[in-house]
Design goal:
There is one protein chain. The protein is of the alpha/beta class. The protein is 38% helix and 11% strand. Strands 1, 2, 3, 4, 5, 6, 7 and 8 form an eight-stranded parallel sheet that branches. Helix 4 packs across helix 5. The protein is globular, with a radius of gyration of 17 Å.
Length: 257
């Protein structure tokens, strides 16, 4: 799994905001972070992200497969929403009639609820991508992992107007058995990827396209980004990739749950 180390500077700016959110929530916190071992019992939130909702646990294994079968592909877009790049990607997806999965950073979702609602309105799915995109969170305490996952679940659900994330993608692939079990107990399937386009490195649209063409045999889940820097190359690459995939006989789907 890629660690995306080149983007830590941008995400470092989120840490202060994430800490602020946590401190502000201390007096009336929605969640109680619990640090028990993975022993079949799930950490219990003090209140549901969607009051009255019936949470159904899902498989805790990391999913890559598409619900469209062997000729299906999953477009996944990480780190937003971003007021510059997310609308451009939504326009492209709409143009080519593609549904995608948006893995959102909690503070970004909280800052741009209008964009979260637009993502939902267009028929895309939501994914929890942690509060502060800490790619070393697999080395942190279970209480910390719980805070990162559950606070983001709440932020996304509130920003969307009540639509819960269906997946959890660990920053940089920093999953742990505990984080996978916790997410799955909340109905969020752990989500991996097969094709890392490396678009966060801004290698140029040609390189992004070439990576997809070369690595698509590795599996159906493609990783792109709509925040964390200038994403004009990603937009241009998607403009070429989306019709090409259809020409190759692929169908666009969602990760299996």
């Amino acid at each position: 799994m890629a660690q995306h180390g080149g983007r830590r500077g941008w995400y470092g700016k989120l840490v202060g905001a994430a800490l602020g959110v946590t401190l502000l929530a201390t007096g009336a916190s929605v969640w109680t972070a619990q640090a028990g071992a993975v022993d079949g019992s799930s950490p219990k939130p003090t209140a549901s992200a969607t009051p009255g909702s019936d949470l159904k646990p899902v498989d805790m294994s990391i999913v890559h497969a598409s619900d469209k079968g062997t000729r299906g592909v999953n477009i996944t877009i990480d780190d937003g929403p971003d007021p510059v790049w997310t609308p451009q990607m939504l326009e492209l997806l709409r143009e080519y009639e593609v549904k995608a999965t948006f893995c959102m950073v909690g503070t970004q979702a909280q800052a741009h609820p209008d964009l979260v609602k637009k993502v939902v309105a267009d028929g895309h799915r939501l994914c929890d991508h942690s509060v502060s995109h800490d790619t070393a969170m697999d080395k942190k305490s279970q209480a910390y992992q719980s805070q990162q996952i559950l606070d983001t679940e709440r932020m996304i659900t509130e920003a969307s107007g009540g639509v819960r994330p269906m997946y959890y993608r660990a920053p940089g692939g920093a999953f742990t058995p505990y984080s996978r079990q916790l997410a799955a107990s909340r109905g969020m399937r752990p989500l991996g990827w097969n094709v890392d386009t490396k678009d966060f490195e801004q290698p140029g649209a040609d390189a992004i396209v070439a990576t997809v063409e070369r690595e698509l045999p590795n599996g159906p889940t493609l990783l792109f980004h709509d925040a964390g820097g200038d994403r004009s190359q990603t937009v241009e690459a998607l403009r070429r990739i989306l019709p090409w995939l259809k020409e190759q006989g692929y169908s666009y789907g969602f990760p299996v749950r």
